[in-house]
Amino acid sequence: MNNAKEKYPSLFSSNKVDTNLFQKELKDYIDTFKDNPFNNTFEDIYFQECNSSFYYGAFDFIEEKDSIYFENCHFFFNDITHKGNSIFKDSKVTFKNCTFISSLNILPDINYPNIQLTYDNCTFSDTLNIRNIDIYITFNDCSFNDIELKDCNIKNNIFTNKKGIKYNINKFTIDNCTFEKRFTLNNYNIEIFTCINCVFQNKFEFKNNNITKFDIHNSNFEEISDMFASKFIQFKISKSIFNDFSGFENCIFGTSDKLIEEVAKFEYVTFKDILTLRQTKFLSGLDIENINLQNDANFLKTKVELKNTPRETFRLIKHSFDKVGNIIEANKFYSLEMKKREEELKDKEHKDKNFLEWLIFKVHGISSDHSQSWVLSLFWIINITFLYSHYKIFLSQEHSEYFVIPFILNILLFITMLLNSLNIKVHIVHQLLISIPIYLVYSFITKDYFLSCFSNNINPFSIMTGTQSLSLATLVYKVTTAYLMYQFIISIRQNTRRS
């Protein structure tokens, strides 16, 4: 090798060299291979930019079925064909640790269709353009900039990344291609991934990838599709069919910014077998309004952002849990479905027409989180009863002025709790702790430390069978408490059954 570097210096120079000198030295260097047909290995050579006809003639010594190796080489030319013919004929060509500086076009070979191309640990600094090919080609542990696959019929697993290193791809486009064998693309950071009009006849494996923009349109997946632990910022699959198991487990969609353009969308997508999104996070929302599920779907431990998610999505998820008898998880998404319905009713156009329905939904949410929180119902029962009991004792005193301040204080506390319930989700423990100040004020002023008046008022039997005359305040209290007790019972039952 040292003798070759001394004899043919232009071949091993990383700088721009005289084209005529390079061509002469490369021809002379290749002539040495003719004396040793078993040595078809090129190492550390910088293949300068020359037209494809020159390289076609330079490599004319190659016989069919030969094996050719390029190791640690740099390529500045961008075509491996000349007038439709491969410059490597029907040989087996392996590129190892090579760098392709210019864009590389891999085009069909008219007379030599059996060429085999293997790229191991190579770097493609510009666009890799593969079109209309029907040959064996594979890229192992390679780094790319842009990849374009168009009108190809791939008969082998074209990409492998065994090292587990996160390589980067700027843009990956697949258009009108058929993959007869497994398609594997794992451990890549990809800015834009686009797949249009493709057919994957074997497994589609797309694991541990980070994608900024992911778009699949009008494509068919004949066997298993697995996108385990991938992260997508913008995600859309449209007008596609998945015939076998489809897995999106441990995936993350969107960002914490919750932007509308980051909503994960499945539009007119058909899943003929099981769809699983277990332990998946949709940080910006999920839209599956137009999905076609022909089998079961698994949403266990899936988190879906309320914002940007349509109500139909929550209904479908709720139904999937109902279908397998997971009532507890179904109730969670039932609550989210009701909140989205409330948002729909809050819209000005709907609110003007359905104000009463909006009001009912609002009261339902405040009183029990749409029959999901028995603690919230109990919270309101206790505090409304404190307020009502304080009111009754206040009216029965001769010197009522001593009770004005604590009564007003209780009203203010009640209003504060009501406002908090409208704006923030209060933790269960906090809901109960908030009742303590009202109890302290109530018991200190009324001397009802053991809550005897409170107990008589909250007694459901006295509410239903009392014969005393009713004031308007008492009537309102009895109706309100009866409703809250009903919500309390329903919320407890929701742990086992909705209806």
SSE map:
Elements: H1 2-7, H2 19-34, E1 41-43, E2 46-47, H3 52-58, E3 67-71, E4 74-75, E5 81-82, E6 85-86, E7 92-96, E8 99-100, E9 104-106, E10 116-120, E11 123-124, E12 127-131, E13 136-140, E14 146-150, E15 153-154, E16 159-160, E17 167-175, E18 178-179, E19 183-184, E20 188-196, E21 199-200, E22 204-205, E23 210-217, E24 220-221, E25 225-226, E26 231-238, E27 241-242, E28 246-247, E29 252-253, E30 264-271, E31 275-276, E32 281-282, E33 286-293, E34 297-298, E35 303-304, H4 311-323, H5 327-346, H6 348-353, H7 355-368, H8 374-396, H9 401-423, H10 428-446, H11 452-458, H12 460-465, H13 472-493
Helix pairs in contact: 4-5, 5-7, 8-9, 8-10, 8-11, 8-13, 9-10
The low-pLDDT segments are none
Going by helix content, strand content and strand pairing, the class is alpha/beta
Tell me the span between the first and last alpha carbons: 83 Å
Q: Radius of gyration, rounded?
A: 36 Å
Shape: elongated
Helical run tally: 13
The total beta strand count reads: 35
The largest β sheet comes out as: 17 strands, parallel
Strand portion: 25-35%
Average pLDDT works out at: 83
Helix content: 25-40%
Provide a descriptive summary of the structure in words:
32% of the residues are buried. Helix content is 36%, strand content 26%. It has a 17-stranded parallel sheet that branches. Strands 1-3-7-10-13-16 form a 6-stranded parallel sheet, with no helix packed on it. A 6-stranded parallel sheet has the order 19-22-25-28-31-34. The N and C termini lie far apart (83 Å). Among the domains are: 143 residues, no CATH class; 121 residues, no CATH class. The protein is of the alpha/beta class. The chain is elongated, with a radius of gyration of 36 Å. Helix 8 packs parallel to helix 10 and helix 8 packs antiparallel against helix 13. The mean pLDDT is 83.
